[in-house]
Amino acid sequence: MTEPRPLGAEIARIAVFAALIIVLGTVIVPLPGGVPITGQTLGVMLAGLVLGARRAPLAILVVLALAAVGLPVLAGGRGGLGVFVGPTAGYMLGWVFGTIVIGLIAHSGRPVWWRTAAATIIGGIAVVYLFGVPVQAAVTGVPLDLTALSALVFLPGDLIKAGAATVLALALRRAYPRAFPVRGAASPASALP
């Protein structure tokens, strides 16, 4: 049985992934047609894969709290309360639930590439879109079907990020398995939601 991590170590891991998500938000790849792809969702996917269903949402909530107080931590240097009522608000909410789904799927058994890939696609794309598209439609006043259709422009980039997250998480697990949740051990950090 593996020794549980101290609470301070768990908090540090959450903070590291919050910082990673923020830094990846500065990676912006412009595409023809003016729709950029950011690296922020890659950070969200990695958080779910590495931290698991209990810790990853906390990393997302740290990022969202920093945005709420006005820090420019979201893609494109955005922050402030306005982002929580804008067209992307549902996607940010989807990050929280998406990381839970990613963690649940990815850590449901022995780490294999197909489970890791499925976790990033289902949690990191489908769940995020499930929250994001309806909120975007409501905020912009565009019909849901047209909003969903317009969101498909992001799908190729999101699939590339899901593939990258899969490869990175599997490589990290081989190189440094201690980065992942401790299985079968109760820890002081279990008091964290």
Walk me through this protein's architecture.
A two-stranded antiparallel ribbon has the order 1-2. The model is unreliable at 185-193 (pLDDT under 50). The chain has helices at residues 7-24, 40-68, 89-106, 113-140, 144-151, 155-175; strands spanning 28-29, 37-38. The protein has a single domain (7-180), classed as Arp2/3 complex 21 kDa subunit ARPC3. It is globular. It is mainly α and 193 residues long.
Features:
two-stranded antiparallel ribbon, mainly alpha, 63% helix, 193 residues, Arp2/3 complex 21 kDa subunit ARPC3, 6 helices
Helices and strands in order:
Blueprint: H1 7-24, E1 28-29, E2 37-38, H2 40-68, H3 89-106, H4 113-140, H5 144-151, H6 155-175
Antiparallel strand pairs: 1-2
Helix pairs in contact: 1-2, 2-3, 2-4, 2-6, 3-4, 4-5, 4-6
